[in-house]
Input
Amino acid sequence: MKKIKYLLFLLSAVLVFMSTGCTESTEGFLDDKAEALSLEKIFSDSILTEEYLATVYWQIPSVFYAPRRAGWFLSNYEDYSSATDDGKEVSNDRTNFCPAFMKADFTQNGINAGFEHFLNLWTAMYSNIRICNQILGNIDECPLTQETKDGMKLEARFLRAFYYFHLLRNFGGVPLVGDNMLNPFENYDMSRSTYEETVDYIASEFTDLAEKLPEVQNLENYGRPTKGAALGMLVKLYFYVASPLSNGGNVGSGDNRLLVGYDDYNVNRWIKAKEAVDNFYAYNNEKGYYALVQGANGSGFYTATTSRVSNERIWFWLVDGVGGNNWPHGKLLPKSRQGTPLIMPYHDLTEAFPTKDGVDIRDKNSQQKYYTAPGKYNQDNLMYNPDDPYSNRDPRFYYTFLYNGAMWKRTSDGVKEPVYTYRGAPTDGIFSTGSPTGYYYIKICKTDVLGNQTGAVNGTGVAFIRYADILLMDAEIMTEIDIEQYRSQIEDRLFQIRSRAGILPGNDNRYGVPQNLSKDEMIDFILNERRIEFVIEASNRFWDLQRRKLFENLNNQWTYAGVWEKIGEGDNGVIYYSWSIQPIEQHYFLTKMYHLPIPLKEYGSAKGKLVQNPGW
Output
């Protein structure tokens, strides 16, 4: 992809204001009154036109990140998953989305539907959609080749559908503006489209784009959407809307019911998702563009999540080292490794990872559900030792976490040294200057990079869809349609994921996947595999809990820290520890939070045209 830094150095600050300034509107997007640079000037200049489209690419992290104020994405890491049982932000400031969501408290930055970040999200998405429409409506006047203009139109349509998808996940059915550029000096009495209408519009766009987008984007265009990305987004869309929140578990009633889901359950929605997966497979079987990245001892998982170029990536966001950034290392690594960590994993997440034979370390209750608190262990797991909890684990564990005693370079030209998180440890000790959970994320971090290095991190980025996601979505879809009919295929998808992860096959070649799981047990197993595979990637844990209606299970539940205590040191320098699991955060959830509210300013300015979401 053409480097986004062009935007900073070639595009005027006035143009940047045009693309982002409306997010601070006091009257909401649909009657915004700001135009900073004439469209005529933009589209009479080929460079300005290309960079105007680049502004919409640069907003892709606004889909990965939790709702926030407009700003420099690379200065933060506000992942939606920090509102879940996976991890938390270092700050408990409830003016931020994740701490507010975790506590079901939207009173510290505006009240309820007036919470500032609901408006920030709404206006960010519609600002992007407006720019896409301005490009579609004006690019024919630009002095570019027809081939270039046609390609940019397709990209603008893809990005527009992508941002509508994010609106759908957060709000349900939304106003569909079509190709309307929304004259900012007019008011609009726009009603919300139904959930089904919104889904159908997004699907129609991705379906058409799958016929027209190029198969490959090479060289400077790498990272722009392809046919595979459009087919992948169709899978993601149909998978999402077939899930229980929309399909059989609608929480709406009256006027808002059909705005937040379908009226009843229909298995054909899962069948539609399966058709989308099979279309993706058919295309990929012919072309061979996508596959799981392989490597010894699970290193393919590391490569797939840290390499700029990978045949596992289907739709993704690239980081090109703009402005000397050190993202993500500087936002995840501990202070002793020159980072300023902003999000940290709970101990609960570490227990989701099995041992290297694929056997779960956690015990289950009589209903075959995991206990809500960690620390109850599977007595049938012969590899797990609670006194040495980080040994013999799924190889993905070691590419995801730093824990007490884990190794990481302290200097750029040095060797790996232990990171100490025990209570009272200098720099990284829990409950002092270190992580409040006892752990740090290293997922998507390159193992030889420190938090203050800038030149080595170019191209890391985050994938919105990897091939692993296609396989796990397929497994869940087939389980929902008919687990007995598809059991061997479901298990095959899981075997592929676990084999690549470096999990031992065992004597039965099942990679720790239990036999004869029921439908509910299989769904739980797949969700846990998704939890492991996609830690802090595109907020998948948040959306899995939302679409499966599982957030309510977190209400009143605690999440935990792994607390290590230094109890002595031997003559040979060996440190002796004890450790315990301690509750640190209690979560709350209200049913209305399955959908965010129409922002209060939008709701008010629409004069009754925008029906509010359930409970708000």
Q: What stands out?
A: Residues 1-36 have pLDDT under 50 and may be disordered.
